[in-house]
Specification:
The chain is α/β, with parallel strands linked by helices. The chain is 34% helix and 19% strand. The chain is globular, with a radius of gyration of 20 Å.
Amino acid sequence: MNEQTRIKVLVVEDSAAVRMLLVHILGSDPKIEVIGTAGSGREALQFLTRALPDVILMDVEMPEMGGFETTRQIMETQPVPIIICAGSSNPRETISAFRLMEAGAVACIEKPLGKEHPDYDVMAANLLQTVKLMSEVKVVRRWPRLRQPAKAADATPALPPRNPAAIQFVGIGASTGGPPVIQTILAGLPRDFRASLLIVQHIAPGFIAGLAEWLNQTTGIKVHVASYGARPMAGCAYLAPDDFHMALGAGGEIVLNKAPPENGLRPSVGHLFRSLAEFSGAKAAGVLLSGMGKDGAIELKKMRDRGAFTIVQNRETSVVHGMPGEAISLGAAACVLPADKIAPALVSLVHNQVLPSGDRS
């Protein structure tokens, strides 16, 4: 492979030892070239005045300028796919990783440990695969803006009594680019939202608790990492835990299992959607968000065939339109909406029983 076609990577990491390890792993792949390193956010910004990489590997906590501010400035000036590299054993870092996603980062991975660690080979392979996949993502410039805190509790006026046949469950599936969209959706729902939300987000192992905590801090919805046998409560969201499929049981309880991966994934969006189609029918809604591949697309069609209302994120607001695009091609989407219109649509659907407006199929 010639130099022109190699993936050019900038490594931003304040620890010299970790920086050397990351450079070593990346350099082991002939398709990847490390074109520079930086020990702080300021160094990274200075480097970008001289050269533009295809991918940036970004640390979370650094002196002078941390990962959030660095990511924000990069995405507002010369956007590049940014992969967060964080320690999953550090709760503060895992929560901060999702702030970086809010600023425009496209993925997060667990920071590889030393060669003596039993999981070194798996972590190194995941790093290389993620860099290759994210190098193909087309990111857009983020314009500076002031984000107003969500006032979810006041978002919906008084509504008529609930129809007994109203929607009880909202299933949400997402992969690459999903966390900020999930945050946008949950922040736009009222605290008295009348359905429970079951969410499968493909994420690196060790980050799901941080995702739950970040969502709890930034939305008005109570977010839990799902536990076996729990009965979903209205106005609450439940995240599938690491390495477990999550499904809705026949009695309306959450079921977790270690069935084989589907589409190479566990948890699988398809596994959740299939159970909602089987046990909820028209009392469920399905939402498929940004992500690579096709997980959940076929099963979203099954939900629609069973009477569920289905929403798919549009291409313009998706980091990767693989999963939503597959669902649209299958006729699984009753409505195609931008990310910021999904929460209002769910409120109308669940509280008013009014079908949301948007591109229909």
